[in-house]
Write a structure and sequence with these properties.
Number of strands: 17
Amino acid sequence: MPIAGRSRRSPRVVIPVAAAGLGLLGLSLGVAVLAALLVARTPTGGCPTPANAPTPTAITLGPPGAGRRVGASEYGGPADASSGTVGASGASLPQHPDSYAELGGTTFATATAMGGLAYMTPLRVTWGRHSAIGYKRDFGLGGGPVAGLPRVIDLWWQLAGALQIPYERGEWSGAVTVARPPAAGAGNVLGQAATPVPVPAPTGPAAACRTPVPPGLALISGPRARLLAGGDAAAPDAAPAAVRGMIAAGNEIAGRPYLYGGGHGQALNQLAPAYDCSSSVAHVLYGGGLLSVSADPTSGALESFGQPGPGRWVTLYASAAHVFMYVAGLRWDTWNAAGAQDGSGGIGWHPLIRSAAGFVARHPVGL
């Protein structure tokens, strides 16, 4: 049953399993059941929103140093097992105690209570006399106002603890001040600067729902991506923002040479001179906001990525020896495995279907 005043990112639903919120996209049964219960609806204005989702009043963050007083809640910890310990991108939150979730939606792109912040956006959060830098690694639906203010942010319980906020069985809620830290300077000195990952909001049939296309990305009509003459790919106009971001990220490194071990051991927001299969796939997934900036998966590790089976927009085929993927129907691979007409032998987009024998099919949640 709902608990009065409980600070959860999504409404409680009475079901036979633990009522987990959608803020964490782990593989728990509770999340799977709730995901099935959230059926999209279209309110006046034509933009789809999830059923039962509260409609937070979005706030606009000012320039660096300009703080805003907002409603906040905490999640996770030993008394809040239903929240899990894995962020929506797959990041281990206990290993990243400086994490927060922007509220308002069911994806990184639709969580817009603070304007739709990019994954890994840093914010300075202040409670009383205590202040700390947090990074967006999660998202969630949110809830009603807190202290008369829009509830726009969830603080991972360890971040809340760093602010000296009392741990109240994961049920604390209150007012905090959030502000953008300076882009450079003190943050770099303190080791707290980060480069956000641009993740535009998903597109919909209404123009009001659309967001800018990643710079340089060509769009085409129809459901499939298309290989262009120069080796880049054009994205379907109807593709979700994560898919657009993935295609744009692939275009950044298409044509770079293959090197076994290349691209590993560095942050995913940095471009490497060469890549191998798993590091190139990781770069593409990162472009869609599907991996954390510090992720460095092997092809074998990607055998357990996301959910099993093919996806609607994205499918990975992974084994201990190799990984390739399809994004909006166009294959991302490190060689022309389907024959002479399958494009260049280097890293990039390939127009033909190759055999998937011996590979495990996986897809990102929701794609």
